UniProtKB/TrEMBL annotation, chain A:
<dbReference type="InterPro" id="IPR003958">
    <property type="entry name" value="CBFA_NFYB_domain"/>
</dbReference>
<dbReference type="InterPro" id="IPR050568">
    <property type="entry name" value="Transcr_DNA_Rep_Reg"/>
</dbReference>
<feature type="domain" description="Transcription factor CBF/NF-Y/archaeal histone">
    <location>
        <begin position="24"/>
        <end position="87"/>
    </location>
</feature>
<dbReference type="InterPro" id="IPR009072">
    <property type="entry name" value="Histone-fold"/>
</dbReference>
<protein>
    <recommendedName>
        <fullName>Transcription factor CBF/NF-Y/archaeal histone domain-containing protein</fullName>
    </recommendedName>
</protein>
<keyword id="KW-0539">Nucleus</keyword>
<dbReference type="Pfam" id="PF00808">
    <property type="entry name" value="CBFD_NFYB_HMF"/>
</dbReference>
UniProtKB/TrEMBL annotation, chain B:
<feature type="compositionally biased region" description="Polar residues">
    <location>
        <begin position="146"/>
        <end position="159"/>
    </location>
</feature>
<comment type="similarity">
    <text>Belongs to the NFYB/HAP3 subunit family.</text>
</comment>
<keyword id="KW-0805">Transcription regulation</keyword>
<protein>
    <recommendedName>
        <fullName>Transcription factor CBF/NF-Y/archaeal histone domain-containing protein</fullName>
    </recommendedName>
</protein>
<dbReference type="InterPro" id="IPR003956">
    <property type="entry name" value="Transcrpt_fac_NFYB/HAP3_CS"/>
</dbReference>
<keyword id="KW-0238">DNA-binding</keyword>
<dbReference type="InterPro" id="IPR009072">
    <property type="entry name" value="Histone-fold"/>
</dbReference>
<feature type="domain" description="Transcription factor CBF/NF-Y/archaeal histone">
    <location>
        <begin position="40"/>
        <end position="103"/>
    </location>
</feature>
<feature type="compositionally biased region" description="Basic and acidic residues">
    <location>
        <begin position="126"/>
        <end position="145"/>
    </location>
</feature>
Length: 108, 174
């Protein structure tokens, strides 16, 4: 498993070096933000920090919903299909529908 | 020579990962290759997933990869909305408030509330640090900023316990 990104991400991700280590690399978040559109030019220093937290909340929410699907099947391994099911079942995650069905999807 | 004969690797855009190490490049069957620098690291993502699951839970590697892609899509989606708002208001810089508003607009109301408090605390801390640095030269503050790199590396192997304490001080668990 690639672990190198964990350290290099946090060390290099110190846009504002004052808030201490985050769970997610700030520089990487910033890169993804910039890729989202042509008009995204300037990003304040606090934005990746806010996103770091937002992504954490998002991951936890989607994971929790996926797990609800997993345990119905009486297994203890959260699979990609469980994530896809959780996305399909949640209106809030409509923006992910194409993403999960493209990568998954001969299950429907 | 054309590649029409036999192997259609380039044409289809599929099966591209003949050289990809496991977990190196997450390629979907639709031929889109997601480069690792457009995804958050799988180790970090996996760690956050584990936090919310019971101890006996297992997560397949594909599930983590899917989650990586979903998070990147989430960031793009919300940033797009935040950036649209800035554009309409003729501002050039996307800031934390824009992200909170975008989250609320897109239906992530509970995230937005949580993050507004988080952002408020962060700004307060930044303000405090600023005034402490201006005051009698607080050694702790200086150490934190100047040794940021090493401090971060040291605390990370401790499974982010420091982060957890700080984070839970800022906001209730989700």
């Amino acid at each position: 498993m690639r672990q190198a990104g964990t350290y290099s991400g946090i060390v290099s991700g110190g846009i504002s070096g004052k808030t201490g280590p985050h769970l997610l690399p700030l520089a990487r978040i910033k890169k993804i933000m910039k890729r989202s559109g042509e008009e995204v030019k300037m990003i304040s220093g606090e934005s990746p920090i806010v996103f770091s937290k937002a992504c954490e909340l998002f991951i936890k929410e989607l994971t929790q919903r996926s797990w609800m699907v997993t345990i119905k099947g009486k297994t203890r391994t959260l699979s990609k299909e469980d994530v896809a099911s959780a996305v399909m079942a949640t209106d809030l995650f409509d923006f992910l529908v194409n993403l999960v069905s493209d990568s998954g999807g001969t299950h429907l | 020579m054309s590649d029409n004969i036999g192997i259609n690797l380039d044409r289809e855009g599929l099966e591209y990962n003949f050289a990809a190490p496991a977990g190196g490049v997450a390629s979907g069957e639709d031929g889109i290759i997601k480069e690792q620098d457009q995804l958050l690291p799988i180790a970090n993502v996996g760690r956050i997933m584990k936090q919310i699951l019971p101890p006996n839970a297992k997560i397949s590697k594909e599930a983590k990869e899917t989650m990586q892609e979903c998070v990147s899509e989430f960031i793009s989606f919300v940033t797009g909305e935040a950036s649209d708002k800035c554009h309409k208001e003729k501002r050039k810089t996307v800031n934390g408030d824009d992200i909170c508003c975008a989250l609320a607009t897109l239906g992530f109301d509970n995230f937005a509330d949580h993050l507004k408090r988080y952002l408020h605390r962060y700004r307060e801390q930044e303000g405090e640090r600023g005034s402490l640095n201006r005051a009698a030269g607080n050694h702790e503050e200086k150490e934190e900023t100047s040794n940021y790199g090493s401090a971060a590396v040291q605390s990370t192997p401790l499974k982010s316990n420091g982060v957890e304490r700080r984070v839970s001080a800022l906001a209730r668990p989700f």
